[in-house]
Amino acid sequence: MVLQMGSPAPPIKVEDWLRGEPLANFQPGKVYIVEFWATWCGPCVAEMLHLVQLQETYKDSVLEVIAVAADEDAPTAVEARTKLDAWLTEKCPNLNYRIAFDCTCEMKKLWREPSFSVGIPASFVVDRDGCIAFIGHPSKLDEVLPKVLNGSWRISDQAKAADTERIATSEPMTRPQALKKPIDDRFWAAVKLEDWKTALWAIEEGIALMPDDINFRLAHAHLLLHKIQDMWTGLPVMSQLVRDAIGKNSEDWMVSALDQLFHPANDHSRLPPAERFAMGKELSEHILALNPPQGDSPKFRSYPAVARYYHENGNNDRAIELVELALTSLDGPEPIPAELKEQHLPDLLQALATYRGGKVCCGALCAAPQNHFPKVPKRGRPRRKDKKG
Fold first, then answer.
1. What are the angstrom distances between the C-alpha of 291 and each of 250, 288, 337?
2. Judging by DSSP bridges, how do beta strands 31-37 and 63-69 pair with one another?
3. What SS3 string covers the chain?
4. Which of 91, 204, 261, 278 is deepest in the core (most CB within 10 A)?
5. What was the pLDDT predicted at 34?
6. Phi and psi (nearest 5°) for 123?
7. Long-range interactions of 360-367: CB distance < 8 A, separation 24+
8. Tens of pLDDT along 1-12?
């Protein structure tokens, strides 16, 4: 059943209420915003202040805001709840609306999946009759909410056209996710058991189904190179990933591929250096051509990856320059949310301290050098494994 404007609002089914009084049912005569969000989602966090302002502005108009945390990233529900509670205590001590916690994905099944709401943040407005009046991004609430409150929104041609367009746009996007879900479930179950061969089979099935899915492609390379460590199979896979990333002219694809080759979280000791550095050079040059140093585009996402390549390749001055540009872009002409800046700043300072070989500070935040980058192994081809192991 499709959840759309005019549909009765589904129930609220959550495990716990972390802030505010529990809500069992929607009350007739009140208007509710049900917001889906997560602490790792920069746009979600940026919208929290917006929701605070809306709750304050319309508190006398019987508006109630409910934020549902249903996508927290943690190994267990207990850890997710504890992490979320600590985050709220530190970051949002003065919230004026309810925060609900759902780890069973019941709210996702009831609300997001039937409405084709693929990503977060996602806002649902429930009107005074207990029906869905709006589904969409919270940035639209300033325009929509006054009309919902005065009862004019749902009967307007604008609302009907917006909901029709939303469904037409979002429904095709949900079909690949439905196809991916059983593959993702098998993959993550295998990862939890460190059963890398079963994980690889799941990912290869996913690639056969969706050859241009970046997550499947990255997982394929990662499993072969860093988990199974099958260089003879993994290197051609990695090389094709690099070619496709460059062919798509996609900064996200190129940075993700570069991370497979140079991110310090991965063990690169078995990768043949000649091939590794050749791919790194090609990716880095294309990233810098796409997002040049003199341009105004944000640098804090891609330049740290390029800097790691130059640092390992012996051009430390270039690595320092790129990290400094990334730091500068945090305060560039395109404003970024404070939470996103807080997320990237520590890692950038840490990289700069390591490359400079000395302590660096930005305001009260400081970082000292760390020797966490892998040593470059001797150049050569990977050897075939001995049959005896």
1. 11, 5, 21
2. parallel
3. CCCCCCCECCCCCCCEEEECCCCCCCCCCCEEEEEEECCCCHHHHHHHHHHHHHHHHCHHHCEEEEEEECCCCCCCHHHHHHHHHHHHHHHCCCCCCEEEECCCCHHHHHHHCCCCCCCCCEEEEECCCCEEEEEECHHHHHHHHHHHHCCCCCCCHHHHHHHHHHHHHHHHHHHHHHHHHHHHHHHHHHHHCCCHHHHHHHHHHHHHHCCCCHHHHHHHHHHHHHHCCCHHHHHHHHHHHHHHHHHHCCHHHHHHHHHHHHCCCCCCCCCCHHHHHHHHHHHHHHHHHHCCCCCCCCCCCCHHHHHHHHHHCCCHHHHHHHHHHHHHHCCCCCCCCHHHHHHHHHHHHHHHHHHHCCCEEECCEEECCCCCCCCCCCCCCCCCCCCCC
4. 261
5. 97
6. -110, 135
7. 362/327
8. 789 999 999 999
Q: Is the pLDDT of residue 374 over 80?
A: no
- For 244-285, the pLDDT digits (tens) are 999 999 999 999 999 999 999 898 989 999 999 999 999 999
Whether residue 380 is predicted with pLDDT greater than 50 in this model: the reply is no
What residues does 69 pair with on adjacent strands? 37, 101
Q: Is the pLDDT of residue 35 over 70?
A: yes
Q: Give pLDDT, residue 339.
A: 67
pTM, two decimal places? 0.63
Taking alpha carbons only, the member of 95, 16, 87 closest to residue 51 is 95
Which tokens is 38 given? 């997560």
Cross-strand bridge partners of residue 124: 34, 135
pLDDT band at 335 (very low <50, low <70, confident <90, very high): low
Cα pseudo-dihedral 232, 233, 234, 236, rounded to 10:
90
Number of other residues whose CB lies within 10 A of the CB of residue 40:
14
